[in-house]
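Recap from last week: sequence in, structure out.
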Amino acid sequence: ELVFPLQFFDYEGYSSAIPLFDGFGAYEQVPFQYSLHILHEDGTIDHKEFLITEPSSDLTLPLIERMKADIDPKGTVISWYKSYESQRNDKLAELHPEYAPFLKELNDKMFDLMTIFSDGHYIDPAFKGSASIKKVLPVIVPSLSYKTMNIHEGSQASERWEKLISTKTSQAAKDKIAKDLLEYCKLDTWAMVEIYRFLKNL
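Predicted structure tokens:
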């Protein structure tokens, strides 16, 4: 059912007890970046990414505009635990109704790569019963690892982004955080590419 180009997509989100941005409630996830690896039928790969570094009056509008430019409407969008990405898209559609058809189409064509593991189509004892990409990746693709990265989990990414947008953070520190965030999110989608390739080669 997958249609090329295959577009491996991942959001990172931020939440806080006290809402900081218009349109978002307490503890509601605010998508602040995405990574997109595009696998074409001939095997070539492109990478696109976006990170909000300076919040504007309409925080998520630049992110959606870039997504619409980056995502090919013909290809399948692939995520890991797609309910997270789908819920972010639903929220963005609520905030930006002019982009609701685009965001609904993304959700309609989204394939959840995690279901291969959560539904038991591929099992390894080393997963320890988990279908988390952090558990699957080291077993399937041991050459890739989050452990060597400055950011290696989503909660860290959220905390670092809060520092990135703070006026109290120096520009040098902002540049370093932005680089780390982009590398972390990029690994999420590259990991999906490599796991997909592994499964196709079985």
